Amino acid sequence: MSSKILTPEEIVKDFKQTFKSKVKETKIERKTVGVKKKERVTIWLKAEKESLHDMVKHLKNYDYPHLAVVSGNDLGKTIELIYHFTIYYGNPLHEILINLSVELPKEKPVIPTITDIIPGALVTEREKQEMLGVKIEGIPDSRRIFLPDDFPEDAYPWRKDGKGPQKMIRDLYEVKK
Amino acid sequence: MSKMSYSLPIGPIHPALKEPVMFEFEIEGERIVNVDFKVGHVHRGIEWIGTQKNPLQILPIAERICGICNISHPIAFCIAVENAAGIDVPERAQYIRVIVAELERIHSHILWAGVAAHEIGFDSVLFLTWRVREKVLDLIEYLTGNRITKAMFTVGGVRRDITEDQYPKIREALNYYKEMFNKLKHVFLDDKTVMMRSRDCGILTKKEALELCAVGPTARASGVKKDVRVDYAYAAYGDLDIKTVTPDAVTGEVKGDVYDRIIVRLLEVAQSVDIIEQCLDNMPSGDLTAEAKPAKLLALLRKTVGEGVGRAEAPRGEVIHYVKLTGEEHPYTWKVRAPTYNNLMPWVPMLMGEQIADIPIVAASTDPCMSCTNRVTAVINGKRDVLTHEYLHKLSVEKTRRLMQ
Amino acid sequence: MVLDSHDWFVLHCFRGAVMALPKSFKRSLWVFHINTGSCNGCDIEIIAALTPRYDVERFGIKLVGSPRHADVLLITGPVTRQMVERVKTAYEQMPDPKAVIVIGNCGSTGHTFHTSYNLVGPVDNIIPVDVYVPGCPPRPEAIIDGVVKAWLKLETLEVKNEQ
Fold first, then answer.
1. Contact of A46 with A24, CB cutoff 8 Å
2. B308-327 per-position pLDDT tens digit
3. ipTM exceeding cut-off 0.90 for this assembly
4. Going from the N-terminus, what domains does chain A have, and what CATH number goes with each?
5. How much is the pTM?
6. Among A64, A74, A81, which residue's Cα sits nearest to residue A125?
7. Partners of B324 in the β-ladder
C-alpha cells in the first residue's frame, strides 16, 4: 500500500510539474453523500497520447493503480480513449478516481500497450481493438474477445461513421415473408 | 506428455456457468500446464442498444444485463447520470438503495454457497441453502413486487417506499438469517471434507491479485482490500459503520485459496444483515426522488452536457459505468464493465498446476456471472478429445468420496 | 442439404406422427437446458423449481447433462450468433419424441434486446417450438405449468398415433 496519502490538489500539481505541457486540462470534482455528507473525489486529466505510458508509470509512485476499465468515444475526427484508474483503495473514504483521457487521430489510431506495467489491462485492450478499430502496439494477444470470429473485419460496433455495425443490425420482431 | 483438448462447460445445473464457459487446457498426466480462454458467447450488443434509447428507457436494459447482480447495474448507471447532470439524491432514497442492495447481496452469496457445495459433491447442502434463500426472496417480493427483476430505481431516487409498517417483517427475516448463519458456518467451515477439497487449492497470491486487477471477494480473499462501499462511498454507505472483510478474521492468516473465498462470502452475509439493521434504525425522512415527474426529468436530461462515472459494489466485485451526454435525446456513449471481466485473467494462475478433478470448484470459486462474460479454452497438442461437463463433475465427486474414506 | 425453419417444422410433425411414444413416458420427463445468451434470471428460476419449495423431482422431472438422454429441451435467451450452431446440434442429438420449451420473453420475441447487431432472431426462427412461457423471469410455478403443457401435448400425439 502507499506510505503517504496525498490530497488531490497535490497530485495534480505533481503531474503538472513532472509532465509540464503534456498535461492539457485538469479538473477536480467533489461530491457528498449521505446524512453526514462524506466526500468523494474524482480527478479528470487530459493528456497527449505520447505521454500515456510514462504517466501510468508515474502513478505507481503513489500506489499500485487499479485499472477499472478503458472507455472510448468516437468524436468524428479523433477517437478518445479514457483510462479509469483508482488509487489509495484500502483506506476508508480516501480512494481517488483518476480519469486519464487521450485522443488519437482517426487516420492512424495507434497507441502503445500498458500491459508491461499492469498485466491485467489485456482484456480491456483487446476489447478496444475490436470495438473501435484502435491498434495497440506490443499487445501480447490480439485475437478477438467478444465478437464472433465471423463478424466482418471492418465493422466496428462503437464507431459512428461509415464503419459502424450498420449492416449487421437485425430486428428480432420482423416477420419473414 | 498426453495432450488433449477439453471443451469444458462447467456445472451441470449451475445456470450461470453452463454453456458460456469453454476452457482449453494443456494437460500433462493429471496436472494442468497451460490455460487459455475464449469469451463472448453472451454478447448482446447492449452498449450499442443504449445509444438508441433515452436514459429512462435504458434502466430496464441495465437491469437485464445480469439477473443475479440485478441491483448493482442500475445503481451504477443512475449514479453516473446523476454525476453528469448534477442531480442530488434525497437522503431517504439513499438509505432505501442501500437496503435493497444488501438484500441482493444476501441472496447472491447464498446462491453461490449452494453451487460450490454442488461442485464438491454435497447435493443435500445445495438443496438446504437454496431453501434458506427462499426466505429472502419472499422478503424481496414483499417489498418490491417481484423476485428477480426488482425495478426499484430511477434517475434521482427510488420508485417505491419502505414504510414503518413493513419493518416487522424485515426484522423477522433478519432474525431468521442470524440464527441460520451459525448453521451455515458450521456446515461449510467446520467440515473436514470441505476443508480437504478447498484448502491450498486454486491459490491466487497477493501480488498476482494486484497485477491482474482482481475485484470483489476474489481479491479480498487474497489480502487486497478493495471494497467500493468502504473506500469510495456511494448512497448511504458513508454514514454506516462497516469494514472490509478479509479471511484473517476467522483463521488468522491469508492464503488466497478456495477456502478463504468461502469464508469471505459467508462473513459478508452476516455483515449485510448488520448493515440493514443500521439503516432501519437510522432511516431519515424526506422525498423519494429529486424530480417526481418523468416528463420533467427527461426534459432536464435532454439539456444536459457532461460526462459521469458511476461505481458500485456488486456481490461479485466492482461495477463501473461511464455515460456521456451531449444535449440530445440519447446518450452519446454508454460503457458497462461488469465485475467478472476483471476476474477472468486470475483464472490462469489459479488453475496452473491443479488436477483436472479440481477444475469445477476452482472455476466456480470466483463466482463468475457468465452473462457478463464468456468462455475459456485450453490448448492441448496432439489428440483432440472432448470432455463433457458430466465427466468432470463425476471426477470431482469421486475425488470427494475418496477423501472421505 | 440445407433446411430452413419451415422444413424443420414439417419434419418434426412428420416424426411425431410416425413414432409412437413409449409407455414409460407417462412416468418421468428428463430435461436438458441450454442458455443461448440470457441474463441468467430465467435460469435461476428453473433451478429454483428443483429446490425443496417447488420440488419438481417428485414428478420425475430431472435435469440431465447431455441432450442424448433428454425428452424436453428448455431454451432461455435471445440467440446470439455464437450459439446458433450449438442450438441446432443439441436439437438434432435429442432422440424422438421430443418437445421444445422456450422460457422467458427473450427467446419468444427478443424483449428489450429486439434490435441488435449480434442476435439472430427469436428461437422459432431456428428450431420448431412447442410451448412458450412468457415472463421476465417467469415464476417457477409458470415454468412447471409450461412443462406440464408440453407433457400433455406429447401424450395427445401418442393417443392420435394409437387411433
1. yes
2. 999 999 999 999 999 999 98
3. yes
4. 8-171 (3.30.460.80)
5. 0.89
6. A81
7. B307, B333
